[in-house]
Amino acid sequence: MDIVYLDGHYIPAGEARISPFDRGFLFGDSVYEVIPYFRGTGFRLREHIARLEHSLRAVRIRSGRDWYAILDRLVELNGGGNLSVYLQVTRGDSGSRSHAYDASLEPTVFACCAPVRDFASVAAKDVKGLAAIVTADLRWHRCDIKSTCLLPNILVLQQARDHQADEALLLRDGLVTEGTSCNIFLVRQGVVYTPKRSSEILGGITRELVLELADENGIQYQEADIDYDALMAGDEVWITSSTRGVLPVTRIDGQPVGDGEKGPLWARMFELLTRYQRRLMTGE
Ligand code: PDD
């Protein structure tokens, strides 16, 4: 995990330096992706790169890099296997602090790896049900952009931790949006519900895959509004992300979700996702 990528160079992490006038540092003027690699293969890599391009376009940061080549080489230099790759692109180093930016700035590109556990290596019976709190969504209205301005996410996750909970589920205008770094699903009477894609949530790669797997396997689902009462009346609640897969939430605001146990539809989706991942890992 020691080699990082910074502006065209693969170097030991301890040697990486960026300018304090980099706009990513000064303003959070940057976007990012987190892409797990399992046995050296990127998990829905094309979709992650497409989302990165969406974020870059939306904030008008120049792109034009061969992201695939950059990441493949980084993964190789870090020994392949199971890794989570973090990729950040800032608007660049402006040499001084000014809100206004020069469109010709050269973006700063940084990527590093961290260990990740592949979800196929864990049996459903060993997955722990999570506790969550529900709290106000304090973020801006362009949550479809994967921006590094994560202060609201950080603060509410800490609020969850202060309540001995694992995640914070966010509520905006009476509706559940998502978690601090995950999308949300609700099961009610055998139907899976998840909030519609909009600029209030991140278009999660795993969210999309879960809907695809539901579709292929005859699991009924609907993209719909979920309010607090509906959330609390759910039989099951799940969260999804590329690094965590699909995880059951069994307590919300101190109350059990359904019977307080991991639900049968969660177990089914966990199995489908695990099978998908195993196929990816063995290249079938
Ligand atoms: N977060 N919603 C938010 C706000 C997120 O930050 C993430 C991912 C997701 C799930 O998206 P995906 O399925 O594409 O991973 C939803 C990453 C993992 C992170 O910030 O570390």
UniProtKB/TrEMBL annotation:
<dbReference type="Pfam" id="PF01063">
    <property type="entry name" value="Aminotran_4"/>
</dbReference>
<dbReference type="GO" id="GO:0046656">
    <property type="term" value="P:folic acid biosynthetic process"/>
</dbReference>
<comment type="function">
    <text>Involved in the biosynthesis of p-aminobenzoate (PABA), a precursor of tetrahydrofolate. Converts 4-amino-4-deoxychorismate into 4-aminobenzoate (PABA) and pyruvate.</text>
</comment>
<dbReference type="InterPro" id="IPR001544">
    <property type="entry name" value="Aminotrans_IV"/>
</dbReference>
<protein>
    <recommendedName>
        <fullName>Aminodeoxychorismate lyase</fullName>
        <ecNumber>4.1.3.38</ecNumber>
    </recommendedName>
</protein>
<dbReference type="InterPro" id="IPR043131">
    <property type="entry name" value="BCAT-like_N"/>
</dbReference>
<keyword id="KW-0663">Pyridoxal phosphate</keyword>
<dbReference type="GO" id="GO:0005829">
    <property type="term" value="C:cytosol"/>
</dbReference>
<dbReference type="InterPro" id="IPR043132">
    <property type="entry name" value="BCAT-like_C"/>
</dbReference>
<dbReference type="InterPro" id="IPR050571">
    <property type="entry name" value="Class-IV_PLP-Dep_Aminotrnsfr"/>
</dbReference>
<dbReference type="GO" id="GO:0008652">
    <property type="term" value="P:amino acid biosynthetic process"/>
</dbReference>
<dbReference type="GO" id="GO:0008696">
    <property type="term" value="F:4-amino-4-deoxychorismate lyase activity"/>
</dbReference>
<comment type="pathway">
    <text>Cofactor biosynthesis; tetrahydrofolate biosynthesis; 4-aminobenzoate from chorismate: step 2/2.</text>
</comment>
<keyword id="KW-0289">Folate biosynthesis</keyword>
<comment type="similarity">
    <text>Belongs to the class-IV pyridoxal-phosphate-dependent aminotransferase family.</text>
</comment>
<dbReference type="InterPro" id="IPR018300">
    <property type="entry name" value="Aminotrans_IV_CS"/>
</dbReference>
<dbReference type="InterPro" id="IPR036038">
    <property type="entry name" value="Aminotransferase-like"/>
</dbReference>
